[in-house]
Design a protein that fits this description.
Blueprint (H helix, E strand, L loop, with lengths): L1 E3 L3 H10 L6 H7 L4 E5 L2 E3 L4 E10 L9 E10 L2 E4 L3 E4 L8 E2 L5 E10 L7 E11 L2 E15 L21 E11 L15 H15 L3 E12 L5 H25 L8 E8 L1 H10 L5 H10 L3 H9 L2 H10 L1 H4 L1 E11 L3 H11 L6 H10 L3 H15 L2 H13 L3 H8 L7 H13 L3 H11 L2 H14 L2 H7 L6 H9 L3 H6 L6 H13 L3 H14 L2 H8 L8
Parallel strand pairs: 3-11, 7-8, 13-14
Antiparallel strand pairs: 1-2, 2-4, 4-9, 5-6, 5-7, 5-10, 10-11, 12-15, 13-15
């Protein structure tokens, strides 16, 4: 932005004070070649600051050797002014500590920076000068050197992006109802006593209840038979097969006795030697030297070798034979069913009628998710934390506070989560981002590695004003933040390609892209659509210098 400025008046005043015979107009004409460049030509807000670089080229005989000058850069905007530090200059013969501007001609460069305040979007940068010569002051009219400010970076979501955790509430719950019968060693006979146990009676009762429940659908029953890992593999395979057969007959008796039980989806399985069950039983037992047994199982895969090695531990084997093997000589009845869970309206009615005591954690979290009242959400999350020690509730409560700008409170709840996952790390990074702790934010986002964390790296680079880094981080991403990053970096095609939806903000960004390309009608079309969808954007558009060519 080059202008021949009335700084020439400064020279005129100085020379007049030196009894020069030339008129004021002639003195102004002496400086007709003074040039001021402002970079950028249109000011832009970057990282919360408004930077500008001024370069002033003074011709020969412009600056009086015995004069000094104070220049105040002022950003004038709707509602106020921002002043940069005063720039002070002196002629060749002045004995002071100001920047010298030689009467032989000079180029002076100044780097300015203003802190952004709302309203700066529609502003102008002007210079206000005063010449001092022989104890007299000669004010100079304000000189406009730049317009501004571009605030396109604010189209990004600069508060950080995050998402809530799902409540874990399932529309259909898969359930199993189970009972078992135990066999004597090397036997496939179902003892009468096994069919009359308390557990078996309970199984029959539960089967009946499943049939009665309108919300439950019985899907089928598996009959699974096993042999304990003692004796040969082939022998135990045959024994397991026989137990499967006798267990199926026992199941038929159960179904016959309970006439209301619908017999569907019966599947019979013979598992043979149950080494998996053996390992699990030993691990849970109080057997001395159980670690030695587990080590044998890990060292050998051949069943015969395993059994031989364990039998060699005579004292241990005796304990296993008494406490472990009897539990593995079994057949299981596993009935699968599906429970149609309560919908949102039913949950709300139940909570209103009976309170929250009978609700499990996912149900409480679902109530919080569907609640329209902010205070109800907070209360429900706190209830889930107190009753279930729910980290999901802690996290979602923190997200509620982030939504409200209560960053410290959100950070406090996130800090109470003992095992932070990718979502928690990302949200912790958002807290650090809002606190301008960019080092911690970067560490959290990197450690999280989630898609939201990657988006927040873009956000952080935009906030810091590093647009090339923001565009690089946004490579391959879609959405408004990615579009803004590329737009700020000057890649208009990449910015356009990152926009996929037709929401108000996306169309506003499309309008900016079109305006920068000089496509005025296209810009108007997108801008009109954006303002129609979101009227608040109209006020922004009216002061947005990106659309200067449209008005």
């Amino acid at each position: 932005m080059k202008r021949i400025l009335s700084f020439a008046a400064l020279a005129a005043l100085v020379l007049m004070s030196a009894s020069c015979a030339k008129s004021r107009l002639e003195q102004m004409q002496l400086a007709k070649n003074v040039v001021i460049n402002c970079n950028p030509e249109v000011l832009e807000i970057k990282g919360g600051q408004i930077p500008a670089t001024l370069t002033v080229t003074c011709p020969k005989d412009y600056f009086h050797p015995k004069a000094t000058m104070d220049v105040t850069p002022v950003l004038v905007y709707e509602g106020g002014e921002l002043c940069a530090p005063v720039l002070q200059y002196q002629g060749d013969k002045v004995k002071d500590n100001f920047k010298v501007v030689s009467s032989a001609g000079a180029t002076v460069t100044e780097r300015l920076k203003f802190a952004y305040v709302p309203g700066c979007e529609k502003a102008r940068l002007e210079l206000r000068g005063v010449v001092h010569y022989k104890n007299k002051d000669y004010p100079i009219d304000a000189i406009k050197v730049a317009d501004g400010c571009i605030a396109t970076y604010q189209l990004a979501d600069l508060t950080g992006v995050y998402e809530r955790k799902p409540d874990g509430y399932q529309a259909v719950l898969e359930r199993t109802t189970e009972a078992r019968i135990l066999y004597d060693v090397n036997s496939d006979k179902v003892k009468k006593s096994e069919m009359e146990t308390y557990a078996m009676d309970g199984y029959r009762y539960r089967l009946g209840k499943l049939q009665e429940d309108e919300r439950t659908t019985v899907k089928g029953t598996q009959i699974v038979a096993y042999a304990s890992p003692e004796g040969g593999k082939e022998y135990n395979a045959k024994l397991s097969d026989k137990r499967a057969g006798s267990a199926q007959k026992a199941w038929d008796e159960i179904a016959k006795d309970a006439k209301d039980i619908e017999v569907t989806g019966i599947e019979v399985k013979s598992m043979g030697q149950d080494w998996e069950g053996f390992q699990e039983a030993v691990a849970k037992s109080n057997i001395e030297d159980k670690d030695l047994i587990l080590r044998v199982l890990s060292m050998y895969s051949d069943p015969a070798v395993r059994e031989s090695e364990i039998r060699n531990m005579s004292q241990i084997y005796s304990e296993i034979n008494k406490t472990v093997f009897p539990e593995l000589r079994r057949a299981r009845f596993v009935t699968s069913s599906e429970f149609r869970n309560y919908d949102n309206e039913e949950l709300l009615k139940m909570a209103e009628k009976d309170g929250l005591d009978g609700f499990d954690e996912p149900s409480i979290l679902r109530l919080a998710a569907i609640s329209e009242a902010r205070d109800s959400k907070e209360t429900l999350y706190k209830y889930a934390i107190e009753k279930f020690n729910s980290d999901t509730a802690r996290y979602n409560l923190a997200m509620l506070y982030l939504d409200e700008g209560k960053t410290s409170l959100a950070g406090a709840y996130l800090g109470k989560i003992k095992e932070p996952d990718a979502d928690v790390l990302n949200a912790t990074g958002v807290v650090a981002l809002r606190n301008e702790d960019y080092a911690l934010a970067a560490k959290c986002f990197e450690k999280s590695g989630s898609e939201k964390a990657k988006e927040n790296v873009v956000v952080m680079d935009i906030i810091k004003g590093d647009y090339s880094a923001a565009a690089a981080a946004a490579r391959g991403m879609k959405g408004c933040n990615a579009a803004v990053a590329n737009l700020l970096n000057g890649d208009l095609d990449a910015a356009s390609g990152a926009l996929k939806c037709k929401c108000a903000k996306s169309n506003y960004i499309r309008a900016v892209i079109a305006a920068r390309k000089g496509q005025v009608e296209e810009a108007r079309k997108y801008l009109d659509d954006a303002c129609a969808k979101k009227p608040a954007l109209k006020e922004r558009a009216e002061r947005d210098i990106e659309f200067a060519a449209l008005w």
